[in-house]
Amino acid sequence: MSVARPKALIFDWDNTLVDTWPVIHAALFETFTAMGQTPWTLAETRLRVRLSMRESFPILFGDRWTAAREIFYEAYERVHLDRLVACEGAGAVLSGLHNAGFYLAVISNKTGRYLRAEALHLGWDGYFGQVIGAGDAPRDKPAPDPVSLALEGSGVAAGGQVWMVGDSGVDMEIAHATGLVPVLLRGGTPAAGEFDAYPPSLHVADCRGLLDMVKDL
After folding, report:
1. Which residue range forms the structural domain that includes residue 67?
2. What's the CA gap between 117 and 84, in Å, rounded?
3. What is the C-alpha separation between 35 and 207, in angstroms, rounded?
4. In angstroms, what CA-CA distances link 69 with 66, 88, 99, 104, 151?
5. What sections of 9-111 are H helices per DSSP?
6. Structural domain includes residue 2
7. Closest CA to 91 of 211, 202, 217, 213
8. Which of 36, 63, 79 finishes a domain?
9. Are residues 100 and 56 part of one domain?
10. Is 37 found in the same domain as 105?
11. Staple 65 to which of 57, 127, 170, 208, CB 3.0 to 4.6 Å?
């Protein structure tokens, strides 16, 4: 497929730029236990965590979801900065793209205040024009609402010159919903049928591969 050189790239955060599965899993384990439910395994956490808290917790915990939210927040806030680990090559790709003049932004289903604290902690906040988390837009990813916020002030309109880079189906879905180029950034081969509904236009295994791909266009 022929893809135009982008003017802007919007990134997912968790497990696209930073490895946060151990932190998310630990906070969920504590939450499930406190709520009297069977905790997920790490493998189940990796498979099932996709939607924002305001979308997923009412499904998981019913009318007790706000109590579960507070337990999760307290557990997550204790450890998330200390255990935050950048994905290999993420800092270099952000620096390289930023220095080359590309507009960069983040759209994540992580709560906005945690997301921005993590970007600041890593020293990456200066790379992004906007960092949009759960609760910042009327609806969260995969709804299209966060895209206009992410591109605000960039001078770039949503369309084929904007790449949406992420590791999951919701990232591909929001790209399709808003006319962005869906780019899967993840090692390995997707499971059969995993992206049938919202297929990626491009697939790269790691951050270095993404930077090389952009440079080659």
Report:
1. 21-79
2. 11
3. 38
4. 5, 30, 39, 30, 29
5. 21-34, 42-48, 53-61, 65-79, 90-99
6. no
7. 211
8. 79
9. no
10. no
11. 57
